[in-house]
Write the structure tokens for this entry.
Amino acid sequence: MYVVGLTGGIASGKTTVADLIASEGINLVDADIVARQVVAIGSQGLAQISAHFGEHILLDDGSLNRGLLREKIFSDNANKQWLNDLLHPLIRTELLAQLAASDSPYTLLVVPLLVENKLTTLCNHVLVVDVDEQLQIQRTMARDNVSEQQVKAILESQASRQQRLAAADSVVVNNDRQQLVKDTAVLHQKFLELAATAMAD
Ligand code: ATP
């Protein structure tokens, strides 16, 4: 299996790029979806969270009360660490299982926090979506209806543009949609070739 990791900051255009690549018949594995699957009703992850925090961490329908969990870890580093120690291996294992099950010429692994969570180790190639910071701020404000200050706080909490670019094997710039569509098509061809070469080795 050949894995292309796709990452980028908030509202950089990951979903836009992922949709373009998926439309070429490439399978996606999405870390945000997997992060929800490992704490879904009936999962081992949810059972452990409920045993640790108590059953009041569950909503009436048995699903995780995410708001309450966020509160519990917000001001408590020990709880935060405990949760990370539980979830990170579960997420990694599930990501690997979904990647192994993929049958397209390569698989796109979409992970917003690829660099922060050191998931680059799962990838053969890392594609970073880069965007001018001012545009990124404007797009986030328009999409999420948040203030410039709130966007800047989110940017501060994520890897810096430089840190992300340092982890990149390829970069696609999303300052302009038409250019992005063209550049993504070229990159898709490149990934097909890289995957074919890697498989032949
Ligand atoms: P997040 O991880 O924050 O959910 P993302 O990286 O997946 O975001 P997208 O959802 O693809 O980013 O794009 C973020 C927002 O910016 C969306 O509202 C999208 O419509 C808009 N957008 C993306 N690319 C462009 C572009 N080239 N020009 C204008 N708007 C764009």
About this structure: Residues 116 and 159 are 6 Å apart (CA to CA). Strands lie at 3-8, 27-30, 107-110, 125-130, 170-173. The pocket of adenosine-5'-triphosphate is lined by residues 8, 10-16, 112, 139, 143, 174, 176-177, 180 (CB under 6 Å).
